[in-house]
């Protein structure tokens, strides 16, 4: 809550599942809400039941499920119940914030076939990438990585998020896989004397931004 | 114990009820048997009497026939004279049923005069005494028109009945008592054994896991049951001990980074003079905590794989894709480290499995190989045809695994001493072992130059007909210097055949 306040968000806390459901429906006269953070184990009503009830009422407020249950099946159950993201405890604060912001700024429907960030241009149909006039030679996975990052320009993306969405891996490798792949992409993206476009966010992850 | 209470206990005991039932059945059998004896004996005695009187009657009546009353009367008198037991009867009656001679008052009504023996009752007269008797009698009409009656008291039949009855009383009662006593003794003995087992079981329940049920070397059901329970206890005890060992390992391996974190934080509080210094130490503490958390996550993941009742996402898997994808994933890392990573796919047989889990297994093997191979070395991932199905081989030019350590590396937390300095939580191979075990595949670690790990899969055809469960893990160390992590035939939860067979039919042409 403090961390959310620090970043300029207004947040309210409900101490039980039933109260949470009530407030999420706008029962207390506040709202509408932009985002819900729901714990799995709640007094009164299970977190997943809260989300299911909301979705049943056609309230589609994005919801992030927090849980001490980190098993793959629990995750699947959480997402199936209507949660938009799932985070197992314990988590780094940066991870939570990155995921919340990703939910708040969901990428627009992927209708565009050409993505642009600054000088960077990605042609999804021709599978071509350019920075300015320079064509980038990307491997298929690097292309996917860049597409994912360009769709979320200016957003902090954690290693776990990248692994989940670019590689579709549910496991956490022991080596710094993501860092190495980002490093490669970075070398291809930034020519000599060009401003770096991928920033490292200490302790959290990476961010693609257009140099001013 | 008070005798009454003992009796009540006894009546409640199932074995004793059985004894009662058996005794009752025994008594009924005996009764039926004696009845049969009685019937047969009566038949025999009656037939004897009948034969005798019929012969006598025909003797008196005929040969020579028609010789007048004299011989007949003589013969009757002769017959009646020699009768100390008062069982013989004879009489001669005129055609108008008037008595002429003999000791029978009147011709019994309804006695057929056919020369055969019949049961009838009549009045015996001896010297003025009248005595009703139940007899066997033969009536014959003589040529003169008179009726000759020869009879014999049926008391022998009654005696036979009495003898049989006495024998029954003398034999049945003691035999039934004996059966009851034997039953009681057997049931008490069984009860004592059960009591001993019960006491032993409650000792086990209250924590004495090393205790066993007493067993005699017989093959009776109680012993066999006890043997099964004891085997179960062996298994449970081994598991509990293994679990305790794991617990200690966890405690040790988590304590190490936590101790470092603590020291770092203390140093930060005491010695940091600038915010930057404090932040640097803070970061190191967070890294230490992350390491502890990674250990916990990996452990949970392993037990998740271990305990999952069945593999949910079971489908045909193309190993070539997995191997190539892992190669692609680790190529940059290998390159950064100065290690050559080569991928060779010589086999295209599909297997049935959980794609994500198999990917995780191969990725972990390659992760390990890249991690332990020094710069300038090489890692080779190859997909080879094998006996039961394809083999995924990950070979490196690293230090290899000491024969003594090869079994241990698949255990949780084990890390050979020479790699203690390398980053990682030491759970990679345990995770691989867990995944391999879930699939009923085989993991073989051997020495090449460096380390060679073979993950032997079962081809889809074989895999689909076999249930995938959680078979016991058997580890043997043959002289050849390689560790075989072999699985015995699966016994646990199974994947219904309907799931895998149609999949195979639809997607996998037989190769």
Short description:
The complex is a heterodimer of chains A (212) and B (511). Chain A has helices at 2-6, 17-24, 47-56, 72-80, 93-104, 140-151, 159-167, 177-189, and strands at 36-39, 63-67, 85-88, 114-117, 120-123, 128-131, 134-136, 157-158, 198-201, 205-208.
Can you give a write-up of this model?
The complex is a heterodimer of chains A (212) and B (511). In chain A, helix 2 (17-24) packs parallel to helix 3 (47-56) and helix 6 crosses helix 7. In chain A, the strands form three sheets. Chain A has a four-stranded antiparallel beta sheet, covered by helices on one side. In chain A, strands 1-2-3 form a three-stranded parallel beta sheet, sandwiched between helices. Chain A has a three-stranded antiparallel beta sheet with strand order 8-10-9. Chain A has eight helices and ten strands. The two termini of chain A are 32 Å apart. Chain A is an alpha+beta fold and 212 residues long. Chain B is of the alpha+beta class and 511 residues long.
